[in-house]
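Quick one before lunch.
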Amino acid sequence: MKHLLSLESLSADALRSILDRVTVFKRDRRTHARPLTGQTWALIFSKSSTRTRVSFEVGLREMGADVLFLNASDIQLGRGEPIRDTARVLGRMLHGAVIRTYAQEDVEQFAAYSGIPTVNALTDEEHPCQILTDIFTFEEARGESIAGKVVTFVGDGACNVPTSWIWAAARLDFELRIAAPKTYQPSTELLRRAGGRVFCTEDIQSAASGADLLYTDVWVSMGKEAEGAARLKDLDGYQINDSLIALAAPNALVMHCLPAYRGKEITEAVLERHAATIFTEAENRLHTQKAVVDWMVE
Ligand code: CP
Ligand code: NVA
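Model of the norvaline complex:
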């Protein structure tokens, strides 16, 4: 049985196999097969979501499944029922699960105890579906492979989104530069484990120099609200703005996983000028979720 629990656990071949399917699902949206007909899948979310929730709900339905959305605080999980008991119950009723939560270990336990295909829809550690979408979006826009290109991530370099980028860089052979204050850089342990061409620096200008893609994410991730004020202060300046874009390659793309906080990690002007790419990136979540599920159930 296949799960998508992290990019760490995905081989380069599996990654490419999923990306190839995204092209087909996007092209054949109205006519593709419905391999989940007769199945019921659940989304079990402990954190807010717009893109991930709607793209999975719509995507699973378009693949033929019935879908339940379970807010974790509405089920007994929210009152302390262990994840492994929840998993053993739901695994007897459902055909697949998509989970957004805090601890990576919870998604891993759910997969192990439920016995049904399980997707990580964001944990504190990784956001694999997002980065699969981002790579698809880059290659779709540029008409060429991301291999050999330079991706610069600006902002909180230690959260889930850059972590998944780190694993993707190791698998798909592009250079990843992370521009972040020292205490917001990924751990050396993670960098050592992942390998690949990943460089971390506090110098945002040198990180952006000649980049093919400038990418950012919120400064205050879900679950970090108590540190909000300190994060806004610490990350001030780690922003995608016009002067940073001037340093990148002339045809550089700008992407953001969204939601965006204008005036913080990205300026209003840059976001609006690159809206076509950024909202295509958001749309591509739908096609990518289908590709992920199709790969899991084949
Ligand atoms: N990018 C992303 O995962 O968005 P949501 O939090 O709205 O799902
Ligand atoms: N790093 C962000 C991603 C949001 C899609 C968060 O975890 O809140």
